[in-house]
Every structure is written in C-alpha cells, then in structure tokens.
Design goal:
Blueprint: H1 3-31
Length: 32
C-alpha cells in the first residue's frame, strides 16, 4: 500500500468514530 491508500483507509476507519462523536454532541446539546 502506498501513502495515499493508507490515508484513505485511515479516513474510512475513522468515519464511524466521527459519526458517534457527532451523535453524542447532538444529544448533549439537546439535553444541555
């Protein structure tokens, strides 16, 4: 794998974490 493939792989693996954080922030904002 070259660097660009590695970057794309890392970004794809991080998408669920970003979605999860966004959901937590949204819930905290609504409850806050």
């Amino acid at each position: 794998m070259n660097d660009i493939d590695l970057i794309h792989y890392m970004l794809l693996m991080n998408i669920p974490a970003y979605v999860f954080l966004a959901c937590l922030l949204h819930i905290a904002f609504r409850l806050g």
